[in-house]
Design brief:
Blueprint (H helix, E strand, L loop, with lengths): L3 H8 L3 H8 L8 H14 L5 H9 L3 E6 L5 H16 L3 E6 L4 H13 L4 E4 L7 H16 L3 E5 L7 E5 L1 H15 L4 E5 L5 H16 L9 E3 L4 H14 L5 E4 L2 H13 L9 E3 L16 E3 L2 H13 L10 E4 L2 E3 L10
Helix pairs in contact: 1-2, 1-3, 5-12, 6-7, 8-9, 10-11
GO molecular function, one term: DNA binding
Keywords: DNA-binding, Transcription, Transcription regulation
Protein name: LacI family DNA-binding transcriptional regulator
Length: 340
């Protein structure tokens, strides 16, 4: 088993310097030196003494949360749940917006580690980027080896505690609802291609298409940015390319609201001419006109459960705790049978 001295020797530094870097000391060191020590920790699979970890944790009170954008209603609801549990435990929450920039996420992990937070919660989607996921997993493992705790929301490659919403089943429920109403020509407003959330929700739609004997050609899928503006733009592109569409399936509510806005501007009646369905069930979904049919995820509860995992010590050396979260179809006024 590797020792602190082994790490110091491999990195070419003193044991004291290696200890400060591993334990996130505020004493300044160069980035190159820090990278050498952390690389040695990973190569040697160094695990600090359990008693030392306990001492390191004893003065940590803040929790770091990395989201894509807290102004996004999806993350705002998740953050509400995270903060509710953290406040109940007397913890301060440090929120970091990555704006879906993988490089920023890596930087935030390092920054939060340097601030000696007690735990890090990754609340955004995973990425289809092998280099990034490998780098992120390595940084999180080093952080955990120094006594920090990690919990994630969504599908990530990091093996640890996680709250995993059933995005695939949500996509299945969404598409099945439209097929059961009689729709055949359905356009899909998807999120960014590189996100696992997009992939999983699309997989559910495609499974529903197969089960109902229908096709979902690539020409009817428009990729957007999970926001209102790009949702409207994707809607326009789909309608211009496929005038026969009778339904639009948006893979989040913000894009669905963008679709409703574009349809209204073109004088297209919802749901009489085109049905619209969203995903997530944001609070505003019930207040738009017509009220939005959508797939509900318990977003605030997901945040609360993730923070609970981050704060609670597992009993003994157990396997990662994975909490599955189901999806539910919420029928409102924006979907109906296709026009005759």
């Amino acid at each position: 088993m590797a020792t602190l001295a082994d790490v110091a020797r491999r990195a070419g530094v003193s044991p004291a310097t290696a200890s400060r870097i591993i334990n996130g000391s505020s004493k300044p060191v160069t980035d190159a030196l820090r990278e050498r020590v952390l690389a040695a920790v990973e190569e040697l699979q160094y695990v600090p003494n359990a008693h030392a970890q306990l001492l390191a944790r004893s003065h940590r009170t803040a929790i770091g949360v990395i989201v894509h954008d807290v102004s996004d209603p999806y993350f705002a609801e998740i953050t509400r749940g995270l903060q509710r549990v953290a406040t109940a435990h007397g913890r301060l929450v440090i929120i970091c917006n990555s704006y879906r920039d993988p490089v920023k996420e890596l930087e935030y992990v390092e920054l939060l580690r340097a601030h000696q937070v007690a735990a890090i919660v990754l609340a955004g989607s995973g990425y289809h980027d092998e280099d990034f996921t490998k780098a992120l997993d390595g940084k999180l493992r080093v952080y955990e080896s120094t006594g920090g705790r990690v919990a994630v929301i969504g599908r990530h490659e990091h093996a640890g505690d996680a709250v995993v919403p059933d995005n695939e089943m949500g996509g299945y429920l969404l598409a099945s609802h439209l097929y059961e109403l009689g729709h055949e020509h359905i356009g899909v407003i998807a999120g960014p291609k590189q996100l696992t959330t997009t992939t999983d929700r699309l997989a559910g739609l495609r499974r529903a298409a197969r089960d109902h004997g229908r096709k979902l050609p690539a020409s009817r899928v428009a990729y957007a940015d999970f926001d209102r503006t790009s949702g409207a733009e994707a809607t326009a592109a789909l309608l211009d390319a496929e005038p026969r569409l009778t339904a639009l399936a948006a893979l989040n509510d913000s894009m669905a609201i963008g679709a409703l806005s574009l349809l209204r501007s073109r004088g297209i009646a919802v749901p009489e001419r085109i049905s619209v369905i969203g995903f997530d069930d944001m609070p505003i979904a019930r207040d738009v006109t017509p009220a939005l049919t959508t797939v509900r995820l318990p977003l605030e509860d997901m945040g609360a459960r993730a923070m609970t995992l981050a704060l609670e010590e597992p009993a003994g050396h157990t396997a990662p705790r994975i909490e599955q979260v189901g999806a539910e179809l919420i029928r409102r006024d924006s979907t109906g049978a296709p026009p005759a």
